[in-house]
Design goal:
This protein has 13 helices and five strands. With 324 residues, it is an alpha/beta fold. The longest helix is centred in the N-terminal third of the chain and has 31 residues.
Length: 324
């Protein structure tokens, strides 16, 4: 019963967990009791997570024996993003989330060419989370990278939006990875520039955006930036915002070789972490939800373990660990 209550709480609200336990398991338990179980076992699972981190760090430092050939792992990718949760007494705080996944080829139907093509997709995704600044989060990400044998991968990739903290961490820990800005975020910036440039002219804005998507996809982000700078000169009322949009493309042009990256079998979208961020958000930002910092931090290792398909394994370790 305890395991089920804790696991359900990582997916559902405490009220929904209570309802499910009563309906499916005929278990009568109050929401306050469920909350106390999560605080108690969340602390233990947090300790298990820390012990696993220490073990991963130790293993990565051990030299490979000369007669042992390191296993060659698949290509790996890392992605990071942030979502906001409401912490009592602090307001809205950023919950940082990251994920690692293997990059595999998947046969998909291309609606434009009407052909089946190989396209990169994410497999075996695991997650990292932290309610706080990028420094500790970066350390947690690097530890997970070592656990996933990042350094043994054939090749690596980093995907993200334009947030500076993301690329600072990439430069610190994943500096040798191919870097790419999420294609869909880039298109959103194009759409915003179009709306600023052609207000109340939806058809013209759409036509301009679609025209710019081609050079952008082909790796000519600088050309797109120049187009937007020219539009800024023609639209004095929106000039400042348009210059900002142009700067987005010029500042990240070296991370916008979408066609090249796709042709080489890499992902060009941050769908894995976008999906992961939504799953964290679904649990932590339900209507009216406000968290104590301790309450959120004790639930995070449970939610993260569930999303990484590690809950049952960590529960066995937690349940057999002495409680302090």
């Amino acid at each position: 019963m305890v395991q089920r209550a804790v696991k359900y709480s990582g997916k559902l609200s405490y009220e929904e967990t209570q309802e499910n336990l009563e309906d499916l398991g005929q278990i009568e338990i109050s929401t306050s009791s469920i909350w106390r179980l999560v605080q108690r076992w969340g602390e233990v699972m947090k300790k298990i997570e820390q012990e696993e981190d220490e073990r991963a760090n130790r293993l990565s430092e051990e030299p490979v024996k000369p007669e042992c050939k390191p296993q060659e792992d698949p290509r790996m990718a890392v992605s990071m993003d942030g979502t906001m949760i409401n912490v009592r007494g602090e307001g809205w705080k950023e919950l940082k989330a990251g994920c690692f996944f293997e990059v595999k080829q998947k046969c998909v139907f291309d609606a434009e060419t009407k052909e089946w093509v190989d396209q990169a997709s994410a497999k075996h995704t695991t997650y990292v989370s932290h309610l706080g600044g990028p420094e500790i989060f970066g350390e947690k990400m690097w530890t997970e990278g070592k656990r996933r044998r990042w350094h043994q991968a054939v090749d690596t990739q980093a995907v993200g939006d334009a947030a500076p903290w993301i690329w600072n961490l990439v430069e610190t820990y994943f500096y040798d990875a191919h870097q790419i800005v999420d294609w869909y975020h880039a298109v959103e910036h194009l759409a915003h520039a179009a709306q600023l440039s052609f207000p109340n002219q939806a058809e013209k804005a759409t036509a301009w955006r679609k025209k710019q998507e081609t050079p952008l996809f082909q790796g000519n982000a600088d050309q797109v930036a120049q187009e937007i700078y020219q539009l800024a000169e023609q639209n004095p009322l929106s000039s400042k915002e348009l210059v900002s949009q142009a700067g987005y493309f010029s500042n990240h042009h070296h991370r916008m070789f979408f066609m090249e990256m796709r042709s080489e079998g890499w992902v060009i979208g941050s769908g894995s972490i976008e999906s992961g961020g939504k799953r964290f958000k679904d649990r932590f930002t339900r209507s009216g939800a406000r968290w104590s910092r301790a309450g959120a931090e004790n639930l995070l290792p449970i939610r993260t373990a569930i999303m990484s398909k590690r809950f049952d394994e960590r529960w066995r370790l937690a349940y057999n660990s002495p409680l302090n």
